[in-house]
Amino acid sequence: MRLTIARACSSGAEQGAHNLKVAGSNPARPTLVDQSSDERPSCGIRNTHLPEEVTIEAADLARRIADTASQEQATDILVLDIQHLSTITDYFVIASVDNVRQLRATAEAIDQDLKEHERIRASRREGNPDSGWVVLDYPGVLIHLMTVEQREFYRLESLWADAHRLLVIQ
Predict the structure, then answer these.
(1) Which CATH number fits domain 58-169: 3.40.50.620, 3.20.140.10, 3.30.460.10, 3.30.870.10?
(2) 86 φ/ψ angles, rounded to the nearest 5 degrees
(3) pTM exceeding the 0.85 threshold for the entire prediction
């Protein structure tokens, strides 16, 4: 699956209005539209720092997320291709962390990296670091960050045993 992120301003009257749209995601899910005012560069001549269109494959996005989690010292990182098994998403990234503080830091690092480099924000964030499990929902990629204890208890890899393993980082 290819994700296309495009800037859109429909008229000169909307100078300063900006939407990020992610196209090509699973038709069962809505298109992500980010209209937050703090992230809106102006349209037109003044905006030279954001390309007109950025394209990234969902598999590449999942790999980038796994790399960011690895840089934050997450362990047992697994990227599963579940396109043929579910309509929820195309890829799962599952990673273990040692403690609540590392869980919070890893989730924030992923959010920040994708916001800065890919201009993508999570459409949903579920869970609380204090619970030991946080889920970040990006277009085409669902991220499960879990403490080792939570991961051993829920064993998501076993539930999705038929999925193709795209990447494994020990």
Answers:
(1) 3.30.460.10
(2) -150, 155
(3) no
